[in-house]
Specification:
single chain, alpha+beta, 5-stranded antiparallel sheet, 19 helices, 22 strands, 42% helix, elongated, kinase
Length: 667
């Protein structure tokens, strides 16, 4: 299984290039190339097919794994890439092969040198984003290098042989001419970005390629024959390599390491190096050959990736949410950290739907997933889930598609929140609302009953008492007449209280019944309704400019009317003076109704908004004790607040708020 993280693509190509150097036959060359590709673990499958011009066909020549031939690469002589071989294969056989050999993306690279096609290199990888533009360009250049090497390895006689003779001869090593070998080595060594060099046993450089000379910032003549120190290596660095050379001479085994060195142009870089022994005819070390690769970007990428993983892991650890990863089509869950809400899984699993999702919600979940995949949009859904203890819970799940450069979904990363408590609260709230609705309905029925069934007996009591007074008034003494008057007054007050209670029960407007209400018109109508009381008490009603608000006009008229009536009633002996004002603050309108009446004890201001709560005896001031309770109910229905500020003998100010639902317009 390729992991795509052991080496970079550049590393893999460098290994393949070096694999060409020690080969002396064409079959060896092909085989070494394939083995180097697979050994890099960047690619799952490597395969080279030899092109037969007489048949216009490609036949297997060397492989490390099994792959399909891409004929289009032969036809176009350009790299051909096929993606999503598991999720969207050309045929079922290709999907089975891709799953068996663990790859998802495949590329065919034509091996062309000076217009001649020598074969096709086919590579496969499990990296979802494999074979992007930069990688294709590097592989195309490598294809030319391999083709050149194959050109040098072939003899003219090879071109007209039949397939069986060719296959037989490929098992036999054919020597390469010395001049051809020299050209091959020079081409490979000069084209590789790696540093290639050799030491003698006195630690002196006897060879250095262009890449190494560039790193030193020196010419070949300036460098060859020098020791490590003479070529700018720090003492500790030179001593380390000298010890390694001594060890190789002793053990005849190669040594590999990493070290930092100052590049002449690019500054401090990190290098991966290998020193290997070159043996003479007697098996003794005569030269130390070395190759060094710049791995700075890889090390930085690894470090950045590690830091990213650490940050992500810290985020996952700190979060109380479930974190999961899904395949592009959601057929497999790759990872799940359940946070003790649902069962963890670190292994890929395909039965996650039945394992975690309640059967009643599976159809909804799959429908939402299909929609998200089709539109490549975020998946969001609330659904039931089976918790660790086997009980049912609720989760809000949200997953985001990760796209490649072609806009294809690579995987999904999601988080899920435990909303079981919230759902339970919502269920209880629904039950409470249902009970409240039933209570309100019962209250309305009671109010209607009070209106019709209770008031009729009160009217009868009042009527018969008045009839008794009219018919037998001359025969009654003063006490009897006074008793009758008390009874009639009590019956009338009882009827007024029943009417007020009915009015209180009917204050229940829904917000969607609200409309724009001009408070200037509301105040004018409330004042008109109180015209007789205003004239009788010679009251003065003034106001500032009042706004337009969203509300129930009938109820707002009643609100203003009750507050004005309260100010007139408790004005004392002097003619009442009442002022109405409004100001906008913090997204709402603050209304005030201020009078200069008898005032209220501050300790009793909270009680006056309760039903039937009176601060004065009925014979002292009239009223039912429900008017201010109705005011409070109206304000609350409009999502506002009401309060009072007062001191005895200093007047009273009633204030209430109404949300600004009209942008703050005034009339």
């Amino acid at each position: 299984m390729s992991r795509g993280g052991k080496q970079s693509i550049t590393d893999a190509i460098g290994d393949v290039t070096r694999a060409l150097v020690p080969t002396i036959t064409e079959p060896e060359m092909r085989q070494h190339v394939c083995e180097a590709f697979v050994a890099s673990e960047v690619y799952s499958v490597a395969w080279i097919g030899r092109y037969l011009p007489e048949r216009d066909d490609v036949v297997p020549n060397a492989s490390a794994g099994i792959a399909e031939l891409t004929n289009e690469a032969v036809r176009t002589q350009e790299i051909t890439v096929r993606r999503n071989l598991v999720d969207d294969p050309p045929c079922d056989e290709w999907r089975d092969h891709a799953l068996e050999h663990d790859y998802r993306t495949c590329a065919a690279i034509p091996l062309v040198y000076e217009g001649t096609l020598y074969g096709v290199l086919q590579l496969a990888t499990d990296r979802p984003r494999g074979f992007e533009t930069t990688e294709q360009e590097s592989l195309a250049e490598l294809g030319v290098t391999i083709a050149y090497a194959l050109d040098d390895a072939e003899s003219p006689a090879n071109t007209d042989r039949d397939e069986s003779a060719e296959a037989a001869e490929e098992m036999t090593e054919v020597p390469i001419e010395a001049e051809q070998k020299r050209r091959l080595y020079e081409t490979i060594i000069s084209s590789t970005p790696d540093l290639v060099y050799a030491f003698d046993l006195d630690y002196r450089f006897i060879f250095a390629n262009d890449a190494l000379l560039e790193m030193w910032g020196q010419t070949y003549d300036e460098s060859i024959g020098n020791t490590l120190r003479e070529n700018g290596y720090e003492p500790w660095h030179a001593e380390m390599h000298e010890r390694e050379i001594d060890r190789i001479v002793e053990t005849k085994e190669p040594i590999r390491g990493e070290v930092a060195f100052e590049h002449a142009e690019h500054g401090r870089r990190i290098y991966d190096y290998i020193f290997a022994p070159v043996l003479d005819d007697e098996g003794e070390v005569e030269i130390i050959a070395g190759t060094t690769r710049d791995i700075t970007e890889r090390k930085e990428a690894e470090e950045a990736l590690q830091k990213s993983k650490e940050r992500f892991r810290a985020l996952v650890t700190a979060s109380s949410d479930v974190v999961y990863r899904m395949s592009p089509d959601w057929s497999e869950m790759h990872e799940l950290e359940g946070k003790e809400f649902i069962a963890d899984t670190q292994e890929s699993t395909s039965d996650w739907l039945d394992k975690y999702i309640h059967p009643d919600d599976q159809e909804r979940v799959t429908a939402a997933i299909d929609e998200a995949i089709q539109t490549k949009s975020t998946f969001e859904l609330e659904h039931q889930i089976e918790q660790v203890d086997g009980s049912l819970g609720w989760t809000f799940s949200r997953a985001v598609p990760m796209l490649d450069e072609d806009g294809e979904i690579v995987e999904w990363v999601g988080m899920a929140s435990d909303i079981t408590d919230r759902k339970e609260y919502e269920r209880e709230l629904e039950q409470t609302n249902a009970q409240l609705k039933r209570s309100n309905q019962e209250l309305k029925r009671f109010a209607h009953a009070a209106s019709h069934d209770l008031q009729e007996p009160l009217r009868m009591v009042s009527s018969y008492l008045q009839l008794l007074e009219q018919r037998y008034g001359d025969d009654l003494d003063a006490d009897a007449t006074e008793f009758i008057e008390f009874a009639v007054d009590g019956a009338d007050r009882m009827r007024a209280m029943v009417d007020a209670l009915l009015e209180y029960s009917q204050v229940s407007t829904r917000e969607n019944d609200f409309e724009s209400v001009d408070c200037e018109v509301v105040l004018e109508q409330a004042t008109e309704n109180l015209r007789m009381a205003i004239e009788e008490r010679e009251a003065s009603i003034t106001s500032d400019e009042l706004p337009t608000v969203s509300g129930d006009e009938r109820q707002l008229i009643q609100l203003f009317q009750n507050l004005l009536d309260n100010a007139i009633t408790y004005a004392g002996d002097e003619p009442p003076t009442v002022h109405v004002s409004a100001e906008r603050r913090d997204g709402e309108w603050l209304f005030s109704v201020r009078d200069d009446g008898i005032g209220i004890d501050p300790e009793k201001t909270e009680d006056i908004f309760e039903v039937f709560n009176r601060l004065h005896a009925p014979d002292e001031y009239g009223g039912t004790g429900i008017g201010l309770a109705i005011c409070k109910r109206i304000v609350m229905t409009h999502d506002g607040r009401i309060w009072v500020e007062s001191d005895p003998g200093e007047g009273t100010t009633f204030s209430f708020t109404i949300p600004d639902g009209t942008g703050g317009e005034t009339t």
